[in-house]
Amino acid sequence: MRSSRVAPFRANITQVMLVLFTLLLILSTLFYGKNIANNLHEVWSLVSNQADQYRSIVVWQWRASRLFSAFIIGAALGVSGAVFQSLVRNPLGSPDITGFNVGAFTGVLITIALLGNLYWFTVIGALLGGLFSALLVYLFAYRDGHSGFRLIIVGIAISATLSAFNQWLSLTVSLETALTAALWNAGSLNGMTWSRIMPISLLIILLLISAGFVNSRMKLLEMGDDSAASLGVSVNKTRLLIMLIGVSLTAVTTAITGPISFISLAAPQIARQFSESKQTSLFTSACAGALLLVSADFIAQHGWENSTLPVGLVTISLGGIYLIYLIIREGKK
Amino acid sequence: MMAALSAQSVSLSYDQYNVAKDLSIDIPHGKFSVIIGPNGCGKSTLLRSLSRLLPPKSGTVLLNGEDIHQQAPRDVAKKLGLLPQTAIAPNGIKVLDLISRGRFPHQKWFQPWSIEDQKAVDQAMEATGIIELSQHYVDQLSGGQRQRVWVAMALAQQTPLLLLDEPTTYLDIAHQIELMDLFQDLNRQQGYTLVAVLHDLNHACRYADNLIVMKKGKIIATGNPKEIITEQLVEAVFGLPCLIMQDPISNTPLIIPRGRK
């Protein structure tokens, strides 16, 4: 960022290990499994496109698109977490405070009940439901601008109300509809084909770039509204823009996969642990989010014999463990 | 000479609560102005309004003769800096990085860090005497050091005009004097126009060229402390019976509260 003060690039052991881990993760996500590749020779035949059609399709059509989805969605979740934690000046901030996930579920329930289970319909239903709840939170939390604390409290209230509504809906609609919607609500990367992820990933990349553009103003807002304003930042306009970017990132990812919790909460924290400056950056949060989701999806696919779990279940379990660890560590201080 | 900053019959309010009505004040160029008054008299509100943070309900605030709200925020930020009471140091930030943020209004999109930026930051650290702290974490500094860092950030902004909202609150007496001396140097040697809200009347009398005395949203008196501070004024504004002597060091008024005995 600052040419005069950038330290010369120096790879330390942690960075080397991380790169190796990433490579290993990519290779195993693509090629792991009895029927795919048993040795390096078979891996090479797949890479050089000499394998039979069945394996090629599994690896390059199904697994590769799923791996790519995990990377880009994980990055989006990591950045949206970093954005919200900066916005509410609280390391436990996450896009969930906007009530987005709960509202998206409402949208999906209604869509499936009225229009049936069609993929792009649920995507749009989730988007509308989620944005509606985020808008509710935004309006209710407004009083001469937004304070981070009020956003959190109003978010919790709206989420609670909407989940009660969701339960009532689930009990009212047909069993089949309720089950289909519940499956969506578990959050999964199943069926992330190239044709589904490609248009969405373009949108995500655009959003990530705009997050990069507001980054410096976002950092100034962390110093308090008055400090930021005295440095020439239009506080309310900037905060709205940041919220829009954060909500959109969550919106787009949740709409296509269902809610995948914990990544946006933990990625910025983990990124901070690994970075030398002990500060959160959007880039490291994106990397941490991507790695987390790819790992979680690998566990979801291969952790249990003969069955794959929705990745949302894996991340929520990991998230629970991580939160308990955080509470114990803070308790010891 | 035109005032550096002025409020022209402004009415100020938070939500429904009216703080000041039809208030006018000129901040003279190149002077150290200090605003005093009892708690809740509207002095911080006036400062917020002068710094563009609080738009007046009516009336205008003029910066160099132009309406401050008609100017782009970044342009104002090149002319006017503020040291707010509410500044928050982000977690795990280093002194140098925090001060560098003061350069934001001068930076352009694709050419972020220039030699001028570096110079401004170095000068700000030198003026505040914190060069050796540059690689320290802000949250590990003492209160006095931290306040110097915030001053340095405001100085790095390189604005001819600097507003200070209770800059010495929470500091011990030695650090208060140190900081007030620093402000005096900035004013006298580097030509800064300063406006500070202060609680300590004796500091105000000692350091101010121009004292602005407020009560209940109104300006009661303005002028050089030697000319305007009297026992009657202090009692009328603060409700404090007192004795006024001459400060033997600075020859400015020294206010001694009578208390109950």
Task: Summarize the SSE layout with pairings.
The complex is a heterodimer of chains A (333) and B (261).
Chain A: H1 13-31, H2 40-47, H3 53-87, H4 100-115, H5 119-140, H6 148-172, H7 175-186, H8 194-221, H9 225-230, H10 235-257, H11 263-274, H12 282-302, H13 311-332
Helix pairs in contact in A: 1-3, 1-12, 3-8, 3-10, 3-11, 3-12, 4-5, 4-6, 4-7, 5-6, 5-10, 8-10, 11-12, 12-13
Chain B: E1 5-14, E2 17-27, E3 32-36, H1 43-50, E4 58-63, E5 66-67, H2 73-79, E6 80-83, H3 95-100, H4 115-127, H5 143-156, E7 161-165, H6 173-190, E8 193-197, H7 201-207, E9 210-215, E10 218-223, H8 225-228, H9 231-238, E11 242-246, E12 253-257
Parallel strand pairs in B: 3-8, 3-9, 6-7, 7-8
Antiparallel strand pairs in B: 1-2, 1-4, 4-5, 9-10, 11-12
Helix pairs in contact in B: 4-5
Describe it.
The complex is a heterodimer of chains A (333) and B (261). Chain A contains 13 helices and no strands. Chain A is mainly α. Chain A has a single domain (2-332), classed as ABC transporter involved in vitamin B12 uptake, BtuC. Chain A is globular, with a radius of gyration of 21 Å. Chain A starts with 12 loop residues before the first helix and ends with a helix. By secondary structure, chain B is an alpha/beta fold. Helix content of chain B is 33%, strand content 27%. In chain B, helix 4 runs antiparallel to helix 5. Chain B starts with a strand and ends with a strand. In chain B, 43% of the residues are buried. The model of chain B has no long low-confidence stretch (mean pLDDT 92). The chains are: A mainly alpha (333), B alpha/beta (261). Chains A and B meet through helix 8 and helix 9 of A and helix 2 and strand 6 of B.
